[in-house]
Amino acid sequence: MRDFDTVVIGAGPGGYHVASALAAAGEHVAVVERDRPGGTCLNCGCIPTKCLAASADALRVCRRAGDFGVRCQVDGFDYAASRRRMLDVVGTLRDGVASLLRGVTYISSEASLVPGLQVSLSDGEALRASRRIVIATGSRPAPLRVPGGERAIDSTAALALESLPQRAVIIGGGVIGMELASIWHTMGVEVTVLEYCREILPGIDADVAKRLRMTLSRAGISIVTGAEVTAVDADGTVRYAAAKGGGAACGDTVVAAGGRRPVLPAGYDGCGIATDSRGFIRVDSHMRTTADGIYAIGDVNGLSLLAHSAEAQARTVVYDDPACFNAGAVPAVIFTHPEVAQVGVVPAGAEVMTVKRMFGANGKALAMGQGEGFVKLTCDRADGAVLSAVIMGPHASDLVAEATILVSGKVPYHEIGRRYIHAHPTLSEIFL
Ligand code: FAD
Fold this sequence. Notes:
The protein is an alpha/beta fold. Helices cover 30% and strands 24% of the residues. The strands form five sheets. Strands 1, 2, 3, 4, 5, 6 and 16 form a seven-stranded mixed sheet that branches. It has a five-stranded antiparallel sheet with strand order 17-18-21-20-19. Strands 10-9-8-14 form a four-stranded parallel sheet.
């Protein structure tokens, strides 16, 4: 039996942040990881997809070089080289995680929970925590439960492909599905997206989701909404039912991108840890589970399946401060082309007004040749406080940081232009 103050299960963004911060505060901390450090985000999520998105961006810029007076010709796209670059970036960041965990006892093993604040490892060794156990075991892709569903690959397998498909059917038009569709389409793959809901990107502002669907459809991605997939045939034909009769889409690769399920460590139920109706671990605002001394952060509690939410929840545990995770101001970012970002929640029944500004009137956006898209702020009608923001357009993923501060600080929209100087010419001037 080895003794620690805190034992963390999982070394993804939630786990490595909580472990390194507690160790920096002087605690004796162990982190147990059964796979590679960095979790889903680093190994098969945020970072690999953003590396491929960067390759797609580079390709797009080269194809449009003539618009900027640059004479060059694109004679092909080397997917293997773009994958090598992706693996290099992931490797560099994995070293960064390892150095962040200096001062933490890192254990490569599968962990199970044992009553009495103990963790058992695959080799039978036991760890005991005197202060707390933090479960940060993340999530995994939801299986596609239709006949032939096992023929579809998940997002992890899609990112591990060594060559691009020629024709792909992506089942699920949520964030993961739409990012992959946008990247692969730019790289030359013929892509069909089948989405069960009436619009892509459930949870994102309907106005923006519709515009993005129209933009991507115009660019050549085939998007079918209201499509309930019923079967995947051996030849890659995906059959679906729809209000107007349904149909079929064919691909040499079928990707299931229809949601995520929690990964629960063995023994959780024996320790008295309750789950919600979707199977995620129930937590209070301090990230405490229903078992004394056991916390759950990140995807596994289902509050927000985003890396920065996992990190914010890690801070909630470290500082024992619920204010570190403000669920009403979590930015969500979608790395399609164009990018989309959203932050804030409008309370039901609130009296609101919207303020919209177009990138077409922004000098920097026009200089960059990216004048499409807009920012829409939804504000309290009485005092003008910004309640939510949605952005579609160039660098939306970076611009949303300002919107997050506006929403968190309930800044009245009319004060933005009056009190806060924005450099010129910049995309951020759109907030003025
Ligand atoms: P994870 O990162 O999943 O880490 C959990 C770790 O726990 C894993 O390493 C796992 O091996 C380990 N583990 C599980 N069970 C055990 C056990 N019993 N014993 C030991 N170890 C265990 N989020 C963003 O914010 N931005 C993005 O751009 C983005 N893009 C994404 C793209 C894709 C394709 C996917 C799939 C996800 C993306 N996400 C993105 C979501 C993001 O990856 C997750 O929200 C984030 O990784 C959650 O962090 P976590 O620490 O909760 O769990």
